[in-house]
């Protein structure tokens, strides 16, 4: 079976360049576009994009509705909707390219739209599990801190709680980004893998003092005992050495991790070790959102809390990180006085 179309590949490379240089998209986003377009080409048996016909959109939608995940489950409505939107974006760009204006119209591209019910269901907000403040502290207290790597992991957990930083940023931070005197982390978008390359100053959230104490001890240990400099990693990878002919990873290098996988692993394992749900590291942002709600703070302080999470718009914090369950919704409405 044919695996690629040379003409299509040239067009896809041009589109990737457009996304990268004109739209400013990162490689992770472009990878998703590549994968979506391959799915479309597989459905058409790699016909040339110039041979596009609206019937191909129906066949593609049918193929997505029958597609299975690696685990053998049907593709979620969210995945299907996202795939259709990515392919539609490509053909919308293609319709304006020289040589395609006569064979592909913008109205043709609209056939990639998902049906309204499925699109609405795909974008419906679903309850996401997140740990309570008490659960977070319980997991933190149970973490071991005997070896250097265990101390690093516990400090990493504490740092997540007092900053709510995203895993990519945590993995790429260096000591120069930490200000213990004034109590903040400077997430420089030029050097730290923040969302959208945004630069964020995050002041340490006023959570249980044990978190800040643990993190402070770690930073001082790196600076004073390990003689780490400003350019060295805040949460370094293990250093490899050979002992009795075997590779051993039990010390600290000075290098950062390439991605946030280790951060997620440390956070999830902390809960799993105390027989709790293995929450992902991103869930701590919802915990901090709930903390904002519980404190009943003045509006200006709420806005500052939101900015501390990296949100320019307070509405983002409210919609994404102030979860209200159905049970809470009922309790809050029932507790209101009649007007």
Task: Please explain how this structure is put together.
The protein has helices at 6-21, 27-43, 54-66, 77-94, 106-109, 116-122, 133-142, 148-163, 167-172, 209-225, 261-272, 284-295, 299-308, 314-321, 326-334; strands spanning 178-179, 184-187, 200-203, 238-243, 246-252. It has 339 residues and is mainly alpha-helical. It folds into two domains: 6-122, DNA polymerase, domain 1 (Orthogonal Bundle); 133-321, Intergrase catalytic core (hpI Integrase, Chain A, Orthogonal Bundle). Strands 1-2-3 form a three-stranded antiparallel beta sheet, with no helix packed on it. Strand 1 (178-179) and strand 2 form a beta hairpin. Helix 4 crosses helix 6 (116-122). The protein starts with 5 loop residues before the first helix and ends in a 5-residue tail after the last helix.
Based on CA atoms alone, the radius of gyration comes out at 24 Å
CATH topology of the largest domain: hpI Integrase, Chain A
Major β-sheet profile: 3 strands, antiparallel
**Which structural class should the secondary elements be placed in?**
mainly alpha
Q: Order of strands side by side in the largest beta sheet? A: 1-2-3
Q: What proportion strand?
A: 5-15%
Question: How many H/I helices?
Answer: 15
Q: Uncertain regions: pLDDT < 50 for 5+ in a row?
A: none
**Second-tier CATH architecture of the largest domain:** Orthogonal Bundle
Characterize the overall form: globular
- The CATH class of the largest domain, by name, is Mainly Alpha
Average pLDDT works out at: 88
Intertermini distance:
69 Å
CATH superfamily of the largest domain: Intergrase catalytic core
Number of domains: 2
What is the number of E strands? Answer: 5
Helix content, binned percent: 40-55%
The H-and-E topology, N to C, reads as: HHHHHHHHHEEEHEEHHHHH
């Amino acid at each position: 079976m044919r695996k690629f179309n040379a003409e299509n590949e040239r067009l896809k490379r041009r589109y990737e360049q457009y996304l990268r240089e004109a739209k400013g998209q990162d490689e992770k986003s472009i990878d998703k576009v590549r994968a979506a377009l391959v799915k479309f080409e597989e459905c058409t048996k790699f016909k040339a994009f110039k041979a596009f016909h609206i019937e191909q959109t129906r066949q593609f939608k049918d193929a997505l509705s029958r597609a299975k995940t690696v685990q053998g489950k049907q593709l979620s409505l969210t995945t299907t909707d996202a795939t259709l939107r990515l392919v539609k974006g490509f053909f919308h760009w293609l319709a304006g390219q020289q040589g395609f204006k006569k064979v592909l119209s913008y109205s043709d591209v609209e056939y990639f739209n998902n049906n309204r019910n499925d699109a609405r269901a795909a974008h419906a907000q679903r309850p996401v599990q997140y740990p309570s403040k008490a659960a977070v502290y319980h997991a933190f207290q149970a973490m071991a801190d005997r070896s250097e790597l265990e101390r690093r992991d516990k400090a990493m957990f504490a740092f997540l709680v007092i900053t709510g930083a995203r895993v990519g940023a945590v993995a790429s931070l260096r000591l120069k980004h930490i200000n213990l005197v004034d109590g903040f982390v400077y997430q420089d978008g030029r050097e730290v893998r923040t969302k959208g390359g945004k630069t964020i100053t995050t002041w340490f959230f006023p959570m249980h003092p044990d978190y800040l104490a643990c993190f402070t001890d770690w930073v001082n240990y790196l600076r004073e005992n390990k003689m780490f400099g400003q350019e060295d990693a805040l949460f370094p990878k293990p250093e490899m050495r050979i002992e009795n002919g075997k590779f051993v990873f039990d010390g600290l290098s000075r290098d950062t991790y390439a991605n946030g996988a280790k951060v997620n692993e440390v956070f999830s394992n902390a809960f799993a070790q105390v027989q709790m749900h293995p929450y992902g590291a991103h869930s701590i942002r919802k915990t901090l959102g709930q903390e904002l709600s519980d404190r009943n703070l003045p509006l200006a302080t709420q806005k500052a809390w939101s900015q501390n999470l990296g949100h320019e718009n307070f509405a983002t914090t409210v919609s994404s990180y102030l979860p209200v369950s159905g049970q809470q919704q009922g309790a809050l409405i029932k507790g209101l006085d009649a007007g």
